[in-house]
Amino acid sequence: MSSALMSVYPKRLSVAFVKGSGVWLWDTKGEKYLDALAGIAVCGLGHSHPVVTKIICEQAGKLIHTSNTYQIPEQEVLAATLTRVSGMDQVFYANSGAESNEAALKMSRLYARKKGNSKPIVIAMKNAFHGRTMAALSASGERLQIDFEPLLQRFIHIPFNDMEALKASSEQHKKDIIAIMLEPIQGDGGIQAAKPEFLHAIRRLCDEHDWLMILDEIQTGLCRTGPWFAYQDYDVLPDIVTVAKTLGNGFPIGAYLSRGKANDLFSIGKHGSTFAGSVLACATAITVLTILEKEQISAHVRKIGDYLMQRLTKIFAKHPHVVSIRGQGLMLGIQLDTDCRELPHVGLEHRLLFNVVANDTIRLLPALILQKQEADEICSRLLNVVNAFYAARSL
After folding, report:
1. Coil, strand, or helix at residue 180?
2. Do 159 and 282 fall within a single domain?
3. Which of 67, 210, 256, 271 is the most exposed place for a label (fewest CB within 10 A)?
4. The pTM is what?
């Protein structure tokens, strides 16, 4: 059957799901799959969480959307929780991670104008992924930018964790730099974590020169790596942090949070969004954060993340094709010695869902409610998947 859908995604895997519960999904044929991807770190509380489902249904039955023309009490409640757990001051709502990053970059231009900087430069990282809108794309890695030139100007990309490059760029362009933007852990870039000294150096530079430190925690935020936000394990505090994914557990919502010198830069009319911060979106996000806090998901992720890492390390310790295993919490990567972009197809045969980033790294982003038995099952199935992949290659 022909499709009217635009072909903007890689060839989709030959499976469609009709039901989910926790870390499990069922396809149209009734087959059961272990989901170690969680909608790409979105369904942090698992599929069809009963409390989240209930609030969505109840709120949709009362009111879905009114617009930001009017007061929305749910926005205030959600903002109070977000600022409390993050250490930030103010919140702007968006509909996605890309929109949140777009707003942060747009706002950095206002900060530059306030300082009399007419040609602001943002330092970003190579192999970064910040989204596919134009400003977010301009801040992302070169691979994503192909065929979209001319991009927004005044971005300088340096190698992730490269202290010498950071120092050189900061010295060369210090009169024009206005912000440094990065992910604490590069997800699409292969599950590469920032070195503590790298983040601390960025914080010092931003303090010394009055620049903005922007952290993209779209994927790492809200307990994915253990703490509420990954930067809290680094003992740094950004000026702006962006968040989405887990925030709605599948319902679209994003936000960017600011503090100190990054506050109050958007004056009336300078930015906005028709759908952002709707009653339904905020009610859902309030429920998600309440569950994360009430069920102490942060502590659970630290514990189960350590357990999963230990199990993966033990199972693949002597595997001839595994280069490294890395990550934090429930954001883990297993790097293989060859291009393995076709591996998710093999995963389907073993009823295990994951994806591949940086062409050679298996990315695991299971729901934050993962239990030991399910972690063991991920390890067992993944070993079978990797072995089957290499066995087929040797034929």
Report:
1. strand
2. yes
3. 210
4. 0.96
CA–CA dist 253, 185 (Å, integer)? 21
pLDDT of 159 above 90: yes
Is the pLDDT assigned to residue 380 strictly greater than 80?
A: yes
The sign of the dihedral angle between the CA atoms of 323, 184, 212, 100 is positive
**Do 325 and 363 fall within a single domain?**
yes
Same domain, yes or no: 204 and 157? yes
Please state, in angstroms and as integers, the Cα–Cα distance from residue 75 to each residue in 81, 82, 133, 277, following that order.
Answer: 10, 10, 25, 6
The answer to the question of residue 4 being in a domain is no
Alpha-carbon distance values, 342 to 12, 43, 230, 316, 347 (Å): 11, 24, 30, 20, 9
Contacts of 274 (CB under 8 A, 6+ apart): 67, 68
Q: Are strands 192-193 and 155-158 parallel, antiparallel or unpaired?
A: unpaired
For 219, 339, 370, 371, the CA distances from 378, given in Å and listed in that order, are 20, 21, 10, 11
Q: What is the mean pLDDT of residues 304-318?
A: 97
Among 264, 279, 294, the domain boundary falls at 294
Measured torsion, CA atoms of residues 98, 291, 184, 386, in degrees rounded to the nearest 10: -90
Helix axes 196-209, 163-172, angle to 10 degrees: 10
Q: Is the model's pLDDT at 320 over the cut of 60?
A: yes
Q: Which domain holds residue 192?
A: 63-294
